[in-house]
Write a structure and sequence with these properties.
This protein is an alpha/beta fold and 297 residues long. It has ten helices and twelve strands. The protein is globular.
Length: 297
Amino acid sequence: MITERTSIHTIRRLYLQLLYRCNFTCKHCFHGERLQHADTFTAAQACNLLGRMHREYATEAVVLLGGEPFVYKELPRVVRYAKHTLGLSVEICTNGYRIGPRLREIAPCIDLLRISLEGAGATNDRIRRDGSYSAAIESIELARNLGVATGATLTVNRYNIDEVVELAQRLQTLGVSQLKLHQLRAVGNAAQHPDMLITDDTAYTDLRYRLSQARLEIEVILDDDLSEAPACSPATGTETIDRIEADPRGALTMSCKAVGRDSHAFWYDKDRDRIEYRPSAHDEIALGIPDVVYGRV
């Protein structure tokens, strides 16, 4: 269905939000009130979508997220299907809070464990949850001991922008291979916390300068709003795109900039195992929303 309506034949990665439920209520979370919703993929539905994307769009990798994927009871079944049956590269994005037992269970199937952090110590806990920073660091250390590669992600905001270099240095000492930085967008919970938004773009220029001067060994990736890289054209203008994201309802979104905005033109019907085209005047194709381009420091 996607190919029939666009020129897209290949989608390299599926970002699969398994559920909305989370053990955190982060102040910047793009899900907002949907964190309280019960929508979820069953393991069978998740595996069906993975298989369809692999067969029809040559998808070679899956990124599992939520909500919080480690509270998803059938996570091991989905991970093993992706890795052992389909041969996909498997990445899991998590808050890293008390995930030890389940991480040990599925560690051999994980290619990258990406931990979300929003600052060093108290700043992180202020945005995410008390005790979340120390728990995340413990999970990074456990993953290292289990032989699982680790990355991290941070959403740059007014309260943590001055701690990015410090956090990168700390993560570097822990053997984290990559730190991915996102710009905060006023959707979900962030729309209720406008104090977190950065309104002076020179702050990003200063951040880029400090990162360039820090001589970091860890790879730092910035989205185009932080890096000043030109945004690419809407995904419909190419035969291959990097990603598509499925939310727990089945809505499919091709651009990071459309996630959280209900701008999807495609849906995965979970019960019928098929992708449907449901256009509107406000979908990402009609609006020409470009995807996010990432650049390195």
